[in-house]
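Troubleshooting: if your tokenizer reports a length mismatch, compare your output against this known-good record of 257 residues.
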Amino acid sequence: MDWNAAYDNAGFIPEAAGYLTRWPAEAAAFRETAQARLDIPYGDEPREAFDLFLPEGAPEGLVVFVHGGYWRRFDRTDWSHFAAGSLARGWAVAMPSYPLCPVVTIPEITECTRRAIEAAAAEIPGPIRLTGHSAGGHLVARMPAAGLAPEVLARVARILPISPVSDLRPLLKIDLVETLRLTPESAAAESPRLAPAPGIPVDVWVGAEERPVFLDQARWLAEAWGAHHHVATGRHHFDVIDDLRVPDSPLVAALLA
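Known-good structure output:
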């Protein structure tokens, strides 16, 4: 089996490069009209900051969206427009950035995510929903076992990983392992699939047209945790998150249930 090809999403999505240029442009346009507090720090490093998008009126609660990019690319400013669906439903949405591999390791990114969520929770009262895409799906799935402050964890009412990497051990077989600085020990420790199921409702989403290994990764987490498992018809790894922009979509309904 060619493990590099197996985990190569862009190589199997038509016009993949178009998404990578369109996302930042659409995100920038969204920020021009959104009510937001930008660049709120949660640490000392430049990438340790989050943007907070605010609805009209008092928020129903807080959604935190953690971006993907194989822990090595992208920034919160590439994804702002994916706050639209939850925002229209009256929820505040926090979108953090985090330092990237190989400057830091995946365990360090997990720690950054924990601190970002705690900082965002201090800004907005009420229930919290955690969601993230790809590597971001991995990061939100890590939170129940990652030392999230008890008073914040108690507010987390739902976790919705989208196309998550739930078991990092297969990544030891791809060339990217050097950039990710993964070891057998850290790959196991950072695998939500191997952690106890949290006492929090979990919905795992994945696109039906994704690479087979990502279908496996989503199924593994759902099976390990007894979670709801939704396979989105006709969606691939890049467009599976599109419905986060649509207030009445099944994806937003599941997130805010």
